[in-house]
């Protein structure tokens, strides 16, 4: 099957997903360093939109499917040397030599098709179809920037996290040596994403330390950081409660630290006077045997309901506690609940305006649930 047949069939069968045309053959005659093509819907009409990039601007041309066949073939045959065509059936990497010889490599498909409304395209911080070093090395995208279909949820999670970070930094002046500690970093997708975001997008020479309890994870992450030449990123073995750090800490991240380990991380952040805290709690057991309320006993007598309520009470209590220490707190959805029920993110940002009612709200909340002898209070007083 030749190039024209591949393009015509993929469009005719609604299997065309995306096209990238790079490396102009004649740069002096072609002002566009790159062109992309994708299906979009405008006023309920499905068309192929070509986005053409100069050094400083982007221009858009819209073609019907039949017209798009000739345009795409012309770009391949006459204009560009490196082309990637993504369809539902296969990915095609097309290389054109200086003499015009066309070589086509067919690979397994990496993308799924969707026609996006023209004015509703999602703008990710780390963009799709643009190669990103750490995502390539961690197996989220291929070397051409295409996200593997099985890793698309991870790609969206990373970008969602960076959107929250970006929003949390609004109004704050960033300086080099911005220090981040990631408690319970695991395989460190988000840790590497933080480094990439600060160092390459925000142009801040960030320092990040990731902490975990698995030796093999620490070894893997440090080796990955070395391969990426992320010089100010290190991973060390240790648990949260015993970890000590004597210098300034600007941000604390803790994702899925089990039970009271989340509380320990929050207390560390408070004691270090961290500007930003981002925490996604994991399993919460401490309050299950402690919460009680006579009026709510018809609900609490059911173990499943009590477990869910105690989890929500735990995160609410943490938010209120952080407010008493001068933080503006939001409890927000991190990722869709269809992927995991552990989807609440606690975002706390240092606030200049102290909430005078926070102490009373915190005590009233504890009294409502008859809560006493709490780890978060004991650990705070011990530090």
Describe the fold and architecture.
Helix 1 (3-12) packs antiparallel against helix 2 (65-79) and helix 7 (260-271) packs parallel to helix 11. This protein folds into 2 domains: 3-121, no CATH class; 163-382, Vaccinia Virus protein VP39 (Rossmann fold, 3-Layer(aba) Sandwich). Helices cover 34% and strands 25% of the residues. The model is unreliable at 336-341 (pLDDT under 50). The longest helix is centred in the last third of the chain and has 22 residues, at 303-324. Strand 6 and strand 7 form a beta hairpin. By secondary structure, it is of the alpha/beta class.
The quaternary structure here is single chain
Instruction: State Rg.
Output: 26 Å
Q: What is the second-level CATH architecture of the largest domain?
A: 3-Layer(aba) Sandwich
Helix/sheet category? alpha/beta
Number of helical stretches of at least 4 residues: 11
Proportion of helical residues: 25-40%
CATH level 1 class label of the largest domain: Alpha Beta
Q: Unreliable stretches, pLDDT < 50, 5 or more residues?
A: 336-341
Total domains, how many? 2
CATH-defined topology of the largest domain: Rossmann fold
Q: What's the main sheet like?
A: 8 strands, mixed
Note the run of SSEs as H and E.
Answer: HEEEEHEEEEHHEHEHEEHEHHEEHH
Separation of termini? 70 Å
């Amino acid at each position: 099957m030749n190039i024209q047949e591949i393009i015509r069939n993929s469009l005719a069968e609604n299997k065309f997903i995306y096209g990238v045309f790079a490396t102009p053959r004649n740069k002096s005659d072609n002002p566009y360093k790159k062109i992309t093509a994708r299906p979009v819907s405008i006023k309920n009409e499905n068309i192929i939109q070509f986005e053409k990039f100069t050094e400083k601007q982007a221009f858009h041309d819209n073609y019907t499917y039949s017209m798009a066949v000739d345009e795409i073939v012309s770009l391949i045959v006459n204009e560009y040397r490196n082309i990637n065509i993504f369809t539902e059936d296969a990915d095609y990497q097309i290389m054109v030599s200086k003499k015009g010889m066309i070589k086509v490599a067919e690979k397994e498909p990496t993308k799924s098709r969707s026609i996006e409304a023209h004015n509703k395209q999602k703008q990710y911080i780390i963009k799709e179809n643009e190669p990103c070093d750490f995502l390539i090395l961690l197996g989220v995208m291929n070397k051409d920037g295409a996200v593997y279909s099985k890793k698309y949820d991870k790609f969206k999670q990373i970008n969602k996290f960076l959107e929250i970070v970006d929003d949390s930094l609004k109004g704050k002046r960033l300086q080099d040596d911005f220090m981040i500690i990631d408690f319970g970093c695991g395989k460190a997708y988000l840790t590497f994403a933080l480094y990439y975001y600060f160092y390459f997008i925000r142009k801040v020479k960030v320092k990040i330390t990731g902490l975990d309890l698995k030796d093999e994870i620490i070894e893997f992450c440090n080796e990955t950081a070395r391969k990426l030449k992320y010089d100010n990123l290190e991973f060390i073995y240790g648990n949260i409660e015993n970890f000590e750090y004597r210098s300034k800490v600007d941000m604390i991240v803790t994702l899925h630290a089990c039970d009271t380990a989340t509380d320990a991380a929050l207390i560390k952040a408070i004691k270090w006077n961290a500007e930003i805290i981002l925490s996604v709690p994991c399993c919460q057991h401490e309050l299950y045997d402690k919460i009680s309320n006579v009026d709510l006993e018809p609900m609490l007598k059911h173990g499943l309901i009590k477990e869910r309520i105690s989890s929500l009470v735990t995160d609410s209590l943490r938010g209120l506690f952080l407010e008493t220490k001068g933080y503006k707190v939001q409890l927000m959805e991190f990722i869709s609940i269809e992927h995991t029920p552990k989807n609440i993110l606690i975002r706390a940002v240092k606030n200049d305006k102290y909430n005078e009612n926070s102490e009373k709200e915190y005590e009233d909340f504890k009294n409502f649930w008859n809560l006493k002898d709490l780890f978060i209070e004991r650990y705070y007083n011990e530090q």
